[in-house]
């Protein structure tokens, strides 16, 4: 059944086509770039929020740019969706980067636009190039050579001040100096010099100008003053014609592999009153509402919110639901929305590994969730697992196979009663240690080992009917490890990969920097990381303590905002 759009929703959809209805005279022209396809970019609520934030400023015209599709042998010049203007004609080019694997696309877009790749090679004729997004405020260093200025943190608390200061055509260094000194979260790589030990590890960062030595990520203390919803409803996204509403930021559970659970601390939830207004607004445009957040099912009052719109006309879906939080009200909302596939993220197969990652759920929670979903008319399940986590053994890998079989048994028993057997899709993802998490010290497994783990699970589930397996390409996980954990030297690797037309196999054979240094090496307790100059509010000593607890298989209670001072976010003066 196709998602319905009301007349006002159709107008909302059509508003993206053509020229933005705002006089251009005297306005700052911004090209907001998502370095991937239109479909991927418009599926990002963060990107849509930036689009709205820029255009809410009266003195700004913001138009969207996406990675041009490959067309023949001639490169396509990146142009804006709204007016078809060349990206390079803008005063400001703003990249929104969610994933490290999009870094190569950043170089492709700049090159196709005729803009020098490296910031140091640009002159006053070129637009200022800035970047933000979660990948950037985890670790901006691998692309620091290509960006004039990073905005590290949440856009709502960064953009207003940045736009007060930004003036097109002014002396670039003078402008960047004002931004670095006056915008909290602004990071200008040219003003900092990394220093290295003889073994290639960092000794630290040295400011070259009168700018802050530490960059404090900017964030909203309260979410309610700013409503974060879809700016454009379009069918050409992963979510179809859904109106997306942000429920929360951060997550209280503290899974040790998850960057969102640490860089977005403290976890914050919107009030149900504001969410009700946002959902009602979206329901006037489309019958499909998507609630977005890392911890949607933890929202206080989520059951009453869903019941408020349990009218048979509004279909509410959730970006994430924990296996231990599937209440009857949430299941009813899923059933009403006619969801055909629900996702559970066990992450690992054994109780031991659940303690290591601090997942906070049990095997019974997972099995009961599978049963409840099928019994409520959701025929298909998708299961997310990670392989290659710290301390993982062959028994832990085998436990993933056994857990999938147990889920299949529960799934089959419940499905038979409904006389319809659906499909289970098992998604296997290679673990990549992320900055600003307790696992930032961990080494990745070698590609050959990751391949063996994936193969073992595939063989174990090969003869289980109605189970399909989607697995990461281990080599790409290795590359992601380089891009997420690297320092400024990674810019040379990216440049060479770009020159080689994206041939990473050739690049990794010829690059002068040993990429294993970033991926396969266990980090020392006192090592300075390339991202340590960013202050996310979480003490590094707390992350190290969490890593040590993980290695011992010890768990940590979930985040108790304002009553706990363990990590340092809520009360940095308390050790």
Helix count from the secondary structure assignment: 20
> In CATH's first tier, which class of the domain at 26-216 applies?
Alpha Beta
Largest sheet: 6 strands, mixed
At the fold tier of CATH, the topology name of the domain at 26-216 is Rossmann fold
What portion of the residues fall into strands of 2 or more residues? 15-25%
Computed Rg: 24 Å
Structural class, judged by helices and strands? alpha/beta
Q: What does it look like?
A:
With 575 residues, this protein is an alpha/beta fold. Among the domains are: 26-216, Rossmann fold; 221-339, Transcription Regulator spoIIAA (2-Layer Sandwich); 539-575, no CATH class. The protein has 20 helices and 19 strands. It has helices at residues 7-14, 38-41, 45-56, 103-112, 134-138, 159-165, 172-182, 260-263, 272-283, 302-308, 328-336, 351-357, 363-375, 394-417, 447-461, 474-485, 490-499, 504-510, 516-519, 540-551; strands at 28-34, 60-66, 92-96, 128-132, 149-151, 186-187, 192-196, 202-207, 215-216, 243-246, 248-249, 268-269, 288-292, 315-318, 341-347, 380-387, 424-430, 467-471, 534-535. The protein has a 6-stranded mixed sheet with strand order 2-1-3-4-5-6. The chain has a 4-stranded parallel sheet with strand order 15-16-17-18, covered by helices on one side. It has a 3-stranded parallel sheet with strand order 10-13-14. Strand 13 (288-292), helix 10 (302-308) and strand 14 (315-318) form a beta-alpha-beta unit. Helix 4 packs across helix 17. It is globular and about 70 Å long. Residues 9-19 have low confidence and may be disordered.
């Amino acid at each position: 059944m196709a998602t319905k759009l009301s007349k006002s929703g159709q107008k909302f959809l059509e508003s993206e086509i053509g020229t933005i209805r705002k006089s251009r005279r005297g306005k700052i022209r911004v090209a907001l770039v998502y370095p991937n396809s239109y479909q991927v970019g418009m599926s990002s609520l963060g990107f849509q929020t930036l689009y709205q934030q820029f255009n809410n400023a009266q003195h700004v015209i913001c138009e969207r740019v996406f990675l041009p599709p490959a067309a023949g042998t001639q490169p396509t010049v990146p142009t804006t969706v709204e007016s078809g203007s060349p990206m390079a004609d803008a005063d400001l080019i703003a990249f929104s980067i969610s994933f490290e694997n999009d870094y190569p696309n950043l170089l492709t877009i700049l090159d196709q636009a005729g803009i020098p790749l490296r910031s140091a090679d640009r002159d006053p004729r070129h637009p200022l190039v800035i970047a933000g997004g979660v990948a950037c405020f985890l670790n901006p260093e691998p692309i620091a050579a290509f960006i004039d200025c990073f905005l590290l943190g949440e856009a709502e608390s960064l953009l207003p001040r940045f736009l007060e200061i930004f003036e097109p055509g002014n002396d670039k260094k003078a402008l960047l100096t004002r931004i670095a000194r006056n915008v909290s979260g602004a990071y200008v790589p040219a003003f900092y010099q990394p220093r290295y030990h003889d073994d290639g590890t960092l000794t630290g960062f040295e400011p070259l100008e009168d700018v802050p030595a530490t960059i404090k990520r900017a964030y909203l203390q309260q979410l309610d003053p700013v409503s974060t919803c879809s700016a454009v409803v379009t069918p050409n996204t992963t979510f179809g014609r859904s109106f997306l509403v942000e429920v929360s930021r951060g997550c209280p559970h503290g899974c040790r592999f998850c960057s969102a659970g640490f860089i977005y601390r403290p976890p914050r939830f919107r009030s149900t009153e504001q969410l009700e207004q946002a959902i009602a607004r979206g329901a006037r445009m489309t019958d499909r509402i998507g609630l977005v957040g890392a911890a949607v099912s933890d929202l206080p009052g989520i059951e009453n919110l869903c019941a408020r719109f349990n009218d048979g006309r509004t279909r509410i879906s959730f970006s994430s639901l924990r296996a231990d939080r599937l209440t009857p009200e949430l299941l009813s909302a899923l059933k009403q929305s006619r969801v055909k596939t629900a996702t559970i993220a066990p992450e690992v197969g054994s109780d031991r590994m659940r303690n290591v990652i601090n997942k906070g759920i049990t095997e019974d929670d997972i099995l009961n969730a599978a049963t409840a979903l099928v019994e409520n008319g959701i025929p298909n399940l998708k299961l997310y697992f990670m392989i290659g986590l710290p301390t993982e053994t062959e028994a832990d890998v085998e436990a993933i196979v056994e857990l999938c079989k147990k889920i299949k048994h529960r799934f089959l028993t419940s499905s038979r009663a409904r006389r319809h057997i659906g499909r289970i899709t098992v998604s296997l993802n290679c673990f990549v240690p992320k900055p600003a998490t307790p696992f930032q010290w961990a080494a990745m497994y070698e590609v050959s080992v990751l391949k063996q783990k994936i193969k073992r699970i595939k063989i174990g589930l090969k003869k289980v009917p109605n189970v399909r397996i989607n697995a990461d390409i281990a080599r790409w996980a290795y590359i992601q490890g380089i891009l997420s954990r690297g320092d400024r030297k990674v810019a040379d690797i990216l440049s060479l990969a770009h020159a080689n037309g994206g041939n990473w196999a050739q690049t990794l054979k010829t690059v002068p920097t040993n990429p294993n240094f970033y991926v396969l090496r266990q980090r020392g307790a006192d090592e300075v990381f390339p991202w340590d100059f960013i202050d996310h509010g979480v003490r590094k000593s707390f992350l190290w303590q969490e890593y040590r607890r993980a290695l011992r298989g010890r768990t940590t209670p979930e985040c108790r905002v304002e009553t706990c001072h363990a990590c340092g976010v809520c009360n940095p003066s308390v050790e």
